[in-house]
Amino acid sequence: MVTLQGQNIHLRALEPEDLEFVYAIENDENIWEVSNTITPYSKFLIRQYLENAHQDIYEAKQLRLVICKKGSSEAVGLIDLFDFDAKNKRAGIGIIIQNEVDRNNGFGKEALGLMINYAFEQLQLHQLYANIGTENKVSESLFTTFGFQRIGVKKDWNFTNNAFHDEAVFQLIKK
């Protein structure tokens, strides 16, 4: 996989050295709400996942890339294509910037733009979709900046903090 370069960040494939970073993200209960996770992951399972991260998107049905600051291997987040459907030329897309100090610096916006371009130009996808909690206005703003449109709301979809929350579906169709 080629490295995808932006002005302030680059996207790269997962490496075995990313074990601690991925472990920290997957076990951060503050992020579970957006990643639809409810249980911690062991380092053993994440190590196995990283060992199989070399799989092609057509085989794994997922592509997870690390968001790094330009000129550095310092990881700030992850961006995923998931539920990859080659026949229907679509995939889900999600992004997480780990630390609050790295948020609102344009890293997520730049990474999302690179991944959208990669999905449409390299993978020849026709559409992308994102599932975003209706209370997550920051993510909604990020995705709509790129032309994603809200196409529906799944009522009481996620149960977090002892309450049900709605989740919106956003879709971007290649023009």
From TrEMBL:
InterPro entries: Acyl_CoA_acyltransferase, GNAT_dom. Residues 9-175 form the N-acetyltransferase domain. Keywords: Acyltransferase, Transferase. PANTHER family: GNAT-FAMILY ACETYLTRANSFERASE, SPERMIDINE N(1)-ACETYLTRANSFERASE. It is an enzyme of class 2 (transferase). One of its GO terms (molecular function) is diamine N-acetyltransferase activity. Its EC number is 2.3.1.57. The keyword Acyltransferase applies. This is Spermidine N(1)-acetyltransferase. The lineage of its organism: Bacteria, Pseudomonadati, Bacteroidota, Flavobacteriia, Flavobacteriales.
